[in-house]
Amino acid sequence: MFATVDAQSMQRLTRDAKLEQFEDGQTIFRQGDHALHVAIVLDGFVKLTRTAACGDETLINICNVGESLYEALTPDGESYRVGAEAIGQAHLMKLSAPRFRFMLRESPALASAVIEEAARKLSGLIGEIESLKGQTAEQRLARFLLSLCPPNAESCSVRLPYDKRLIAARLGVKQETLSRAFAKLREIGVRTETRDVSIENVARLSSECCGGEREPCLPSERRDLIESRGALA
Amino acid sequence: MFATVDAQSMQRLTRDAKLEQFEDGQTIFRQGDHALHVAIVLDGFVKLTRTAACGDETLINICNVGESLYEALTPDGESYRVGAEAIGQAHLMKLSAPRFRFMLRESPALASAVIEEAARKLSGLIGEIESLKGQTAEQRLARFLLSLCPPNAESCSVRLPYDKRLIAARLGVKQETLSRAFAKLREIGVRTETRDVSIENVARLSSECCGGEREPCLPSERRDLIESRGALA
User: Fold this and answer.
1) Bridge partners, B157 (sequence order)
2) Are B152 and B208 within one domain?
3) Is residue A1 part of a domain?
4) Which residues pair with A83 in a beta bridge?
5) Which parts of the sequence belong to the Cyclic nucleotide-binding domain (chains A, B) (predicted)?
6) Does any domain span residue B2?
7) What tens digit of pLDDT does each residue of B26-67 get?
């Protein structure tokens, strides 16, 4: 996220940053809490959820290496609109929210980086809405698997980044529906063994389920980062 | 959106801005077109849609007075990620996209305004995802109606801002499902006559359908603007 921000701004921005480690399932912050920090994922995955007044919890997003939890903030920046919890072990950098806001006004490069990150997040959520409104479970699963494949692979093996219960929640389908979708994709050469997935023909998966469109969710630098940390096979 | 931007920046930003009027159903830009402009809605409503390779169209958002069509841009700003079409008559201001990007680096106030707008849009899309994943059709409709009510109204009459076919698409339900949802809400004092809706008890609608939560989609200044233009009753 900060690749284009100058060293001096970064130094000021991170002066009182905290590095924290969270264990699987540990709360990072709660929905409604006063927003003291802008958090950035340095390693692992973070689950963002909204809890309705009746107690129902909805998975909104899963953020990974290099992403800020920027969408967690309410538009006024006062409180967290969602809750955040570690999936597996996660490392985060927490920047002071007031300093972050102050620095945004001081550093055009930081402001640009935040605008770009926001554009990527908007784009991701638009893809999510399109998928929720218009796609079958197989199509959603195929799209998710394609986002894990290296850009020009003909065939590949990937490791699911988190368990199937969470993947179902992310795709907005029941667990049984996800199992049926995996079974259907087997017919076109997608095989799973626990968390390892082999895709015989990436182009076929794309053309049969997504009309040939491939829109990887992860920019390639981010994928490299995740791969180098062993989160993908 | 530009309330906090200084006059000098505004003057430079709008130097080669174009004001354009579109008729109902007229295309503003197409998905995939080269992104030459950042458009802002001055009057009316604009429908943003994604079209999949197979031709299926999904309604992503409906933007109204004072909103930019910022989410239409791809993260790299090169092309439009969605298509835009006028609903009814719409007036738009089109700013040159390269100038806009240049000015973002020059004017911290403009950058802040864009970041705030992006945060509002993210927040809106998060609400949409929560609704699509976790709410019934009645709950979605109730939430939509509540977003049209004035902040502290006990009872009120509102005019639906666009037709029921579009409302169904926005809420991600079929038209028959929307009709059934309207019929169910009648039991708790919500009456409709074509596009006029009267809500006997706003608090009851909120508590029975949304667990008492009220989260208006429209900031109050924007609602005032829409009201003064007669789009709401």
Assistant:
1) B198
2) yes
3) no
4) A49
5) 1-121
6) no
7) 999 999 999 999 999 999 999 999 998 778 888 998 998 888
Give the integer Cα–Cα distance in Å for B176 and B12: 49
Radius of gyration of chain A (CA): 18
Q: Which residues of A touch B74 (CB under 8 A)?
A: 119, 123
The C-alpha of B55 sits at a distance from chain A's nearest C-alpha, in angstroms, of 9
Among A132, A161, A184, the domain-final residue is: A132
pLDDT per residue, tens digit, chain A (233 aa), is 677 777 887 888 888 889 999 999 999 999 999 999 999 999 999 999 999 877 888 899 899 888 889 889 888 888 999 999 999 999 999 999 888 888 888 888 888 888 888 888 888 888 888 888 888 899 999 989 998 998 888 999 999 989 999 999 989 889 999 999 999 999 999 999 989 999 999 999 988 877 665 554 444 444 444 444 444 33
Do residue A18 and residue A98 come from a single domain?
Answer: yes
Q: Do A82 and B126 touch (CB under 8 A)?
A: yes
Same-domain pairing of A75 and A145 = no
Same domain, A62 and A169: no
Optimal mutation site among B63, B71, B100, B130, interface A, most CBs of chain A within 10 A: B130
CB < 8 Å to B105, chain A: 108, 112
* Enclosing domain of residue A80: 7-132
Number of domains in chain B: 2
Tokens representing A33 are 């809490």
CA distance A87 to B1: 36
The region that residue A194 occupies, defined by phi over 0 for left and psi between -120 and 50 for alpha, beta otherwise, is left
A67: helix, strand or coil: coil
Does A48 share its domain with A97? yes
